[in-house]
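Q: I'm building a small set of examples for a reading group on sequence design. Run inverse folding on the following structure and report the sequence directly after it, with nothing in between.
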Protein backbone atom coordinates (compact mmCIF):
# COMPACT_ATOMS: atom_id res chain seq x y z
CA UNK A 1 0.00 0.00 0.00
CA UNK A 2 1.27 3.45 -0.85
CA UNK A 3 1.51 6.17 1.80
CA UNK A 4 -1.29 8.14 0.13
CA UNK A 5 -4.76 6.67 -0.53
CA UNK A 6 -5.65 5.11 -3.84
CA UNK A 7 -7.93 7.30 -5.95
CA UNK A 8 -11.06 5.66 -7.33
CA UNK A 9 -13.54 7.19 -9.79
CA UNK A 10 -17.02 5.80 -9.12
CA UNK A 11 -19.44 6.06 -12.05
CA UNK A 12 -23.23 5.66 -12.23
CA UNK A 13 -23.23 6.48 -8.55
CA UNK A 14 -26.31 7.35 -6.55
CA UNK A 15 -26.50 8.76 -3.01
CA UNK A 16 -26.87 5.25 -1.59
CA UNK A 17 -23.70 4.11 -3.37
CA UNK A 18 -21.77 6.96 -1.80
CA UNK A 19 -23.28 6.26 1.60
CA UNK A 20 -22.40 2.57 1.71
CA UNK A 21 -18.99 2.80 0.04
CA UNK A 22 -17.85 5.55 2.36
CA UNK A 23 -19.30 3.74 5.35
CA UNK A 24 -17.26 0.61 4.67
CA UNK A 25 -13.96 2.11 3.48
CA UNK A 26 -11.19 4.06 5.13
CA UNK A 27 -10.21 7.52 3.82
CA UNK A 28 -6.61 6.53 4.51
CA UNK A 29 -6.97 3.66 2.04
CA UNK A 30 -9.37 4.91 -0.66
CA UNK A 31 -10.19 8.39 -1.92
CA UNK A 32 -13.46 8.37 -3.86
CA UNK A 33 -14.71 10.66 -6.61
CA UNK A 34 -18.38 10.08 -7.34
CA UNK A 35 -19.94 10.71 -10.75
CA UNK A 36 -23.65 10.31 -11.38
CA UNK A 37 -23.10 9.87 -15.11
CA UNK A 38 -22.26 6.62 -16.83
CA UNK A 39 -18.76 5.62 -17.83
CA UNK A 40 -18.37 5.41 -21.59
CA UNK A 41 -15.89 6.54 -24.21
CA UNK A 42 -17.11 10.15 -24.01
CA UNK A 43 -16.65 10.31 -20.22
CA UNK A 44 -13.49 8.27 -19.64
CA UNK A 45 -11.51 11.50 -19.16
CA UNK A 46 -13.20 11.94 -15.79
CA UNK A 47 -11.03 9.05 -14.56
CA UNK A 48 -7.85 11.08 -15.07
CA UNK A 49 -5.76 11.17 -11.91
CA UNK A 50 -7.27 7.98 -10.51
CA UNK A 51 -5.85 4.46 -10.30
CA UNK A 52 -9.14 2.56 -10.59
CA UNK A 53 -12.73 2.95 -11.72
CA UNK A 54 -15.81 1.54 -10.00
CA UNK A 55 -18.69 0.77 -12.36
CA UNK A 56 -22.23 -0.56 -12.50
CA UNK A 57 -24.44 -2.52 -14.89
CA UNK A 58 -25.11 0.18 -17.49
CA UNK A 59 -21.60 1.59 -17.84
CA UNK A 60 -20.13 0.88 -21.28
CA UNK A 61 -16.57 -0.39 -21.06
CA UNK A 62 -15.92 -1.20 -24.70
CA UNK A 63 -12.46 -1.26 -26.26
CA UNK A 64 -12.47 2.46 -27.06
CA UNK A 65 -13.41 3.38 -23.50
CA UNK A 66 -10.84 0.98 -22.03
CA UNK A 67 -8.06 2.32 -24.22
CA UNK A 68 -8.94 5.78 -22.96
CA UNK A 69 -8.88 4.57 -19.36
CA UNK A 70 -5.49 2.97 -19.92
CA UNK A 71 -4.15 6.26 -21.25
CA UNK A 72 -5.46 7.95 -18.11
CA UNK A 73 -3.45 5.54 -15.97
CA UNK A 74 -6.25 3.25 -14.87
CA UNK A 75 -4.98 -0.09 -13.63
CA UNK A 76 -8.15 -1.72 -12.32
CA UNK A 77 -11.89 -1.95 -12.94
CA UNK A 78 -14.19 -3.07 -10.14
CA UNK A 79 -17.84 -3.79 -10.84
CA UNK A 80 -20.55 -3.26 -8.23
CA UNK A 81 -22.52 -6.12 -9.76
CA UNK A 82 -22.28 -9.77 -10.72
CA UNK A 83 -22.61 -9.37 -14.49
CA UNK A 84 -19.75 -8.27 -16.72
CA UNK A 85 -21.33 -8.41 -20.19
CA UNK A 86 -20.80 -4.63 -20.46
CA UNK A 87 -17.00 -5.01 -20.27
CA UNK A 88 -14.74 -5.99 -23.18
CA UNK A 89 -12.69 -8.48 -21.19
CA UNK A 90 -10.47 -9.34 -24.15
CA UNK A 91 -9.44 -5.69 -24.44
CA UNK A 92 -8.80 -5.59 -20.69
CA UNK A 93 -6.49 -8.58 -20.99
CA UNK A 94 -4.55 -6.96 -23.83
CA UNK A 95 -4.31 -3.63 -22.03
CA UNK A 96 -3.29 -5.12 -18.71
CA UNK A 97 -6.36 -3.86 -16.86
CA UNK A 98 -7.54 -6.16 -14.08
CA UNK A 99 -11.28 -6.67 -13.61
CA UNK A 100 -13.18 -7.91 -10.58
CA UNK A 101 -16.88 -8.24 -9.85
CA UNK A 102 -19.26 -8.97 -6.99
CA UNK A 103 -20.40 -12.51 -7.81
CA UNK A 104 -22.83 -12.81 -4.90
CA UNK A 105 -24.16 -10.09 -2.64
CA UNK A 106 -27.62 -11.11 -1.44
CA UNK A 107 -29.28 -13.72 -3.60
CA UNK A 108 -32.23 -13.48 -1.23
CA UNK A 109 -32.79 -9.84 -2.19
CA UNK A 110 -33.22 -10.61 -5.89
CA UNK A 111 -35.07 -13.87 -5.29
CA UNK A 112 -37.57 -12.27 -2.92
CA UNK A 113 -38.17 -9.42 -5.36
CA UNK A 114 -38.79 -12.00 -8.10
CA UNK A 115 -41.55 -13.57 -6.03
CA UNK A 116 -42.94 -10.14 -5.17
CA UNK A 117 -43.24 -9.30 -8.87
CA UNK A 118 -44.84 -12.66 -9.60
CA UNK A 119 -47.44 -12.24 -6.86
CA UNK A 120 -48.15 -8.67 -7.94
CA UNK A 121 -48.64 -9.75 -11.54
CA UNK A 122 -50.74 -12.81 -10.78
CA UNK A 123 -52.98 -11.26 -8.12
CA UNK A 124 -53.22 -7.88 -9.90
CA UNK A 125 -51.97 -6.01 -6.85
CA UNK A 126 -50.89 -3.01 -8.92
CA UNK A 127 -54.43 -2.60 -10.21
CA UNK A 128 -56.05 -3.27 -6.84
CA UNK A 129 -53.85 -0.68 -5.12
CA UNK A 130 -54.94 2.06 -7.49
CA UNK A 131 -58.61 1.05 -7.31
CA UNK A 132 -58.78 1.14 -3.53
CA UNK A 133 -57.18 4.60 -3.45
CA UNK A 134 -60.08 5.73 -5.64
CA UNK A 135 -62.62 4.02 -3.32
CA UNK A 136 -63.30 1.37 -5.94
CA UNK A 137 -63.58 -1.99 -4.20
CA UNK A 138 -64.95 -4.01 -7.11
CA UNK A 139 -63.12 -7.27 -7.79
CA UNK A 140 -63.82 -7.76 -11.48
CA UNK A 141 -60.61 -7.98 -13.50
CA UNK A 142 -58.53 -8.96 -10.47
CA UNK A 143 -58.87 -12.74 -10.73
CA UNK A 144 -55.62 -14.67 -10.27
CA UNK A 145 -54.68 -18.30 -9.69
CA UNK A 146 -53.16 -20.34 -6.88
CA UNK A 147 -49.42 -20.83 -7.21
CA UNK A 148 -49.82 -24.00 -5.16
CA UNK A 149 -49.69 -27.01 -7.44
CA UNK A 150 -48.63 -25.06 -10.51
CA UNK A 151 -45.57 -25.89 -12.60
CA UNK A 152 -42.94 -23.15 -12.56
CA UNK A 153 -39.97 -23.17 -14.91
CA UNK A 154 -36.80 -21.72 -13.41
CA UNK A 155 -34.18 -20.87 -16.04
CA UNK A 156 -30.83 -20.71 -14.26
CA UNK A 157 -30.35 -22.31 -10.86
CA UNK A 158 -27.29 -20.50 -9.56
CA UNK A 159 -27.30 -18.65 -6.26
CA UNK A 160 -30.35 -16.49 -7.06
CA UNK A 161 -32.26 -19.09 -9.03
CA UNK A 162 -31.58 -21.59 -6.27
CA UNK A 163 -33.21 -19.35 -3.66
CA UNK A 164 -36.17 -18.80 -6.01
CA UNK A 165 -36.55 -22.58 -6.23
CA UNK A 166 -36.60 -22.89 -2.44
CA UNK A 167 -39.24 -20.17 -2.08
CA UNK A 168 -41.44 -21.65 -4.79
CA UNK A 169 -41.21 -25.08 -3.22
CA UNK A 170 -42.58 -23.47 -0.08
CA UNK A 171 -45.60 -22.38 -2.11
CA UNK A 172 -46.14 -26.00 -3.14
CA UNK A 173 -45.12 -25.47 -6.78
CA UNK A 174 -43.76 -28.17 -9.04
CA UNK A 175 -40.34 -27.00 -10.22
CA UNK A 176 -38.83 -27.62 -13.63
CA UNK A 177 -35.37 -26.22 -14.27
CA UNK A 178 -33.02 -25.50 -17.13
CA UNK A 179 -29.32 -24.82 -16.63
CA UNK A 180 -26.27 -25.91 -18.65
CA UNK A 181 -24.64 -26.75 -15.31
CA UNK A 182 -27.23 -28.58 -13.16
CA UNK A 183 -26.42 -28.09 -9.49
CA UNK A 184 -29.28 -29.68 -7.57
CA UNK A 185 -30.64 -33.17 -7.24
CA UNK A 186 -34.01 -32.19 -5.75
CA UNK A 187 -35.46 -30.71 -8.95
CA UNK A 188 -35.94 -31.90 -12.51
CA UNK A 189 -33.69 -30.44 -15.22
CA UNK A 190 -35.02 -30.45 -18.77
CA UNK A 191 -34.38 -28.73 -22.11
CA UNK A 192 -35.52 -25.12 -22.39
CA UNK A 193 -38.08 -25.87 -25.10
CA UNK A 194 -39.71 -28.52 -22.92
CA UNK A 195 -39.67 -26.24 -19.88
CA UNK A 196 -41.45 -23.48 -21.81
CA UNK A 197 -44.12 -25.90 -22.98
CA UNK A 198 -44.85 -27.34 -19.53
CA UNK A 199 -44.68 -24.27 -17.28
CA UNK A 200 -47.49 -21.98 -16.14
CA UNK A 201 -44.85 -19.51 -14.92
CA UNK A 202 -41.34 -18.99 -16.31
CA UNK A 203 -38.75 -17.01 -14.35
CA UNK A 204 -35.32 -16.10 -15.73
CA UNK A 205 -32.09 -16.16 -13.70
CA UNK A 206 -29.39 -16.60 -16.33
CA UNK A 207 -26.35 -14.43 -17.10
CA UNK A 208 -26.37 -12.50 -20.36
CA UNK A 209 -23.99 -14.13 -22.85
CA UNK A 210 -24.01 -14.52 -26.64
CA UNK A 211 -25.75 -17.87 -26.07
CA UNK A 212 -28.50 -16.46 -23.85
CA UNK A 213 -29.14 -13.19 -25.71
CA UNK A 214 -32.85 -13.11 -26.68
CA UNK A 215 -33.33 -16.65 -25.40
CA UNK A 216 -36.98 -15.65 -25.09
CA UNK A 217 -37.80 -14.73 -28.67
CA UNK A 218 -40.91 -15.15 -30.82
CA UNK A 219 -40.35 -18.90 -31.22
CA UNK A 220 -39.82 -19.41 -27.51
CA UNK A 221 -42.95 -17.41 -26.71
CA UNK A 222 -45.01 -19.54 -29.06
CA UNK A 223 -43.87 -22.64 -27.18
CA UNK A 224 -45.14 -21.27 -23.89
CA UNK A 225 -48.56 -22.21 -22.61
CA UNK A 226 -51.23 -19.69 -23.67
CA UNK A 227 -51.72 -17.31 -20.76
CA UNK A 228 -48.46 -18.21 -19.02
CA UNK A 229 -46.60 -15.60 -16.97
CA UNK A 230 -43.01 -14.52 -17.62
CA UNK A 231 -40.74 -12.92 -15.00
CA UNK A 232 -37.26 -11.49 -15.58
CA UNK A 233 -35.08 -10.09 -12.79
CA UNK A 234 -31.79 -11.12 -14.39
CA UNK A 235 -30.67 -9.29 -17.54
CA UNK A 236 -32.85 -7.35 -19.96
CA UNK A 237 -31.17 -8.81 -23.03
CA UNK A 238 -32.51 -12.28 -22.26
CA UNK A 239 -35.85 -11.15 -23.70
CA UNK A 240 -36.67 -9.91 -27.19
CA UNK A 241 -38.91 -7.03 -26.13
CA UNK A 242 -40.58 -6.55 -29.51
CA UNK A 243 -41.47 -10.25 -29.62
CA UNK A 244 -42.91 -10.04 -26.10
CA UNK A 245 -45.08 -7.09 -27.09
CA UNK A 246 -46.51 -9.08 -29.99
CA UNK A 247 -47.17 -12.06 -27.70
CA UNK A 248 -48.96 -9.78 -25.22
CA UNK A 249 -51.06 -8.23 -27.99
CA UNK A 250 -52.04 -11.67 -29.27
CA UNK A 251 -52.93 -12.94 -25.81
CA UNK A 252 -50.36 -15.73 -26.06
CA UNK A 253 -48.46 -14.33 -23.07
CA UNK A 254 -50.69 -13.89 -20.05
CA UNK A 255 -48.51 -11.42 -18.20
CA UNK A 256 -45.02 -10.01 -17.90
CA UNK A 257 -43.06 -8.84 -14.85
CA UNK A 258 -39.72 -7.10 -15.35
CA UNK A 259 -37.05 -5.60 -13.16
CA UNK A 260 -34.67 -5.27 -16.12
CA UNK A 261 -35.03 -4.05 -19.70
CA UNK A 262 -32.62 -4.50 -22.58
CA UNK A 263 -32.41 -0.75 -23.32
CA UNK A 264 -32.60 0.42 -19.72
CA UNK A 265 -29.36 2.41 -19.74
CA UNK A 266 -30.99 5.78 -20.42
CA UNK A 267 -34.02 5.08 -18.22
CA UNK A 268 -33.38 3.27 -14.99
CA UNK A 269 -31.76 4.89 -11.94
CA UNK A 270 -32.93 8.35 -13.09
CA UNK A 271 -35.95 10.50 -12.21
CA UNK A 272 -37.63 11.16 -15.55
CA UNK A 273 -41.03 12.04 -14.11
CA UNK A 274 -41.02 15.49 -15.72
CA UNK A 275 -40.00 14.21 -19.15
CA UNK A 276 -41.56 12.34 -22.04
CA UNK A 277 -40.10 8.84 -22.36
CA UNK A 278 -38.31 8.72 -25.71
CA UNK A 279 -38.10 4.92 -25.85
CA UNK A 280 -41.24 3.98 -27.81
CA UNK A 281 -40.80 0.26 -27.16
CA UNK A 282 -40.64 0.72 -23.40
CA UNK A 283 -43.54 3.18 -23.51
CA UNK A 284 -45.60 0.57 -25.35
CA UNK A 285 -44.83 -2.00 -22.68
CA UNK A 286 -46.21 0.30 -20.01
CA UNK A 287 -49.60 0.49 -21.76
CA UNK A 288 -50.43 -3.15 -21.03
CA UNK A 289 -52.52 -3.79 -17.90
CA UNK A 290 -50.85 -7.19 -17.48
CA UNK A 291 -47.30 -5.84 -17.38
CA UNK A 292 -45.52 -4.92 -14.12
CA UNK A 293 -42.17 -3.15 -14.24
CA UNK A 294 -39.79 -2.09 -11.48
CA UNK A 295 -36.65 -0.09 -12.23
CA UNK A 296 -33.83 -2.58 -11.57
CA UNK A 297 -34.41 -2.52 -7.83
CA UNK A 298 -34.32 -6.24 -7.05
CA UNK A 299 -30.85 -5.87 -5.51
CA UNK A 300 -31.88 -2.85 -3.46
CA UNK A 301 -31.82 -3.98 0.16
CA UNK A 302 -29.63 -2.83 3.03
CA UNK A 303 -28.07 -6.28 3.27
CA UNK A 304 -27.24 -6.39 -0.44
CA UNK A 305 -25.76 -2.88 -0.54
CA UNK A 306 -23.62 -3.68 2.48
CA UNK A 307 -22.30 -6.86 0.85
CA UNK A 308 -21.71 -5.10 -2.48
CA UNK A 309 -19.73 -2.33 -0.81
CA UNK A 310 -17.64 -4.67 1.32
CA UNK A 311 -16.79 -6.95 -1.61
CA UNK A 312 -16.04 -4.01 -3.92
CA UNK A 313 -13.64 -2.53 -1.39
CA UNK A 314 -11.95 -5.89 -0.82
CA UNK A 315 -11.58 -6.28 -4.60
CA UNK A 316 -10.03 -2.82 -4.88
CA UNK A 317 -7.58 -3.55 -2.09
CA UNK A 318 -6.43 -6.74 -3.81
CA UNK A 319 -6.20 -5.36 -7.35
CA UNK A 320 -4.47 -2.12 -6.46
CA UNK A 321 -1.84 -3.83 -4.33
CA UNK A 322 -1.21 -6.55 -6.92
CA UNK A 323 -2.54 -9.27 -4.66
CA UNK A 324 -4.61 -12.27 -5.83
CA UNK A 325 -8.32 -11.52 -6.02
CA UNK A 326 -10.87 -14.30 -5.76
CA UNK A 327 -13.43 -12.28 -7.74
CA UNK A 328 -11.19 -11.38 -10.67
CA UNK A 329 -12.34 -12.49 -14.12
CA UNK A 330 -10.21 -13.24 -17.16
CA UNK A 331 -10.96 -12.38 -20.78
CA UNK A 332 -13.16 -15.45 -21.17
CA UNK A 333 -15.22 -14.48 -18.16
CA UNK A 334 -13.78 -17.18 -15.91
CA UNK A 335 -12.76 -16.49 -12.34
CA UNK A 336 -8.98 -16.37 -12.03
CA UNK A 337 -7.51 -18.69 -9.46
Amino acid sequence: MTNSPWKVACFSSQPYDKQFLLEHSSPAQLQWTFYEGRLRTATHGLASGHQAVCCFVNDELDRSCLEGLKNEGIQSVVLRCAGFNNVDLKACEELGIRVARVPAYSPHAVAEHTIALLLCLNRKLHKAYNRVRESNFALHGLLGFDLHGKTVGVVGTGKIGGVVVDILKGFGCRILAHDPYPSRDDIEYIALDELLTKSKVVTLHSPLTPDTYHMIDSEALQRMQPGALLVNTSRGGLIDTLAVIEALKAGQLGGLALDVYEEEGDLFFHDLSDQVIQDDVFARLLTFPNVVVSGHQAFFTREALTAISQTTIANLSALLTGAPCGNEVDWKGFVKS
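The chain has a mean pLDDT of 95.
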